[in-house]
Amino acid sequence: MLILFGGSSEERLVSVASAQNLMGHLTEAKLLFLAPDNSVHFVEPAELARHADPFTKAFIPCTAAFAGTLEVALPLLKDHTFILALHGTEGEDGELQALLEKNHIAFTGSSARASRLAFDKKHTKELALAHHLPITEDLLLNHPASSDDQKKLRDFFTTFGKIVLKPVANGSSVGLFIIDSARALEDAIKKLNPAAGSYLAERFITGREITVGVRHHLDGRVTPLPCSEVRVIQGRQFDYEGKYLGHGVQELTPAPLDPEITQRCQALAVKVHQACGCEGYTRTDMILTNAGPILLEINTLPGLSKA
Fold first, then answer.
1. By Cβ atoms counted within 10 A, which residue in 166, 204, 235, 262 is the most buried?
2. Is residue 307 within 8 Å of residue 244, measured between CB atoms?
């Protein structure tokens, strides 16, 4: 087994923390680090264990590169099963899975097709709607820097008064904006990252933030894990710092929910997992309103760090 981690996405630091946790449970697995320049390095467990503050400091391997690119390395690693600890674009957009499938290499998580679908928040919501699953109103901005899309965004904000703005394809709450005033809207427009591609604006939903993991068994059964609740201190938001550095956020597992509500949240996670054709494991984020849970997104390779 090989634990593949690192990469160049905005979630590469989270990936290192996931690998640190995984190596303690999969002691027989080797560690394979994908550097930001796409070079591939074998890493000793002791070296990775010594790396402190993984959420804020980049990991730099001491060893020379095993291969200049992952494409070059894969034909030499066909006998291994890849434990994917990559997150964000490189880990979850389906490109890595397609490369592994092309080389006939076994790996954890969902297929290339399911990964591509689930990574795109808009496509996920369209599929959820087709399966009669609860979603909220949204606006897709394919060209967020254009004056036309910015006008649409301002009109959308005027309609709902409070909105969430986030990249269509990203994770770990990177690039997330919660907008409740005209000034906040204009500030967010200035901060939009052109490299992030399309953005999705959504009506802000008032409720409790719930996340539910799902496990896909070899016999085809899909079972939910206990619900978790994210509680955000007033004035903060569940962004990268809140999620991984504990700034202004409290996470409760299992979430203090009535059994009937717990079942509804778990059922939504299972249905989204199945609708997207996912495998292995996923985590679905939702908002619990008075009317029940409403889907936000699904993660095909959620973070596996201790935090």
1. 166
2. yes
d(CA 201, CA 130): 20
Same fold, 2-108 and 119-134+206-299: no
Q: In terms of CATH architecture, what is 2-108? A: 3-Layer(aba) Sandwich (3.40)
Find tokens 């397609």 and name the residue.
Answer: 98
Find tokens 């990991």 and name the residue.
59
The packing angle between helices 112-119 and 95-102, to 10°, is: 180
Does residue 295 contact residue 287 with C-beta atoms inside 8 Å? no
Q: From the centroid of its chain, how far is CA 257?
A: 24
Nearest CA-CA partner of 50 in 78, 93, 20: 20
pTM of the model: 0.89
Strand partners, 42: 32
H-helix or E-strand containing 212?
Answer: strand 208-216
What whole-number distance in Å separates Cα of residue 264 and Cα of residue 212? Answer: 11
Question: How far is residue 257's CA from residue 219's CA, in Å, rounded to a whole number?
Answer: 30
For residue range 5-20, what is the model confidence (pLDDT) as tens digits? 999 888 899 999 999 9
Amino acid code (one letter) for 218: L
Task: List, for residues 211-263, the tens digit of each pLDDT value.
Answer: 999 999 989 999 999 999 998 876 555 454 545 444 567 889 999 999 999 99
Report H helices in 69-181: 70-73, 88-92, 95-102, 112-119, 121-130, 147-160
CATH 3.40.50.620 is right for the domain spanning 138-203: no
- Contact between 201 and 233 under an 8 Å Cβ cutoff? The reply is no
CATH of domain 119-134+206-299: 3.30.470.20
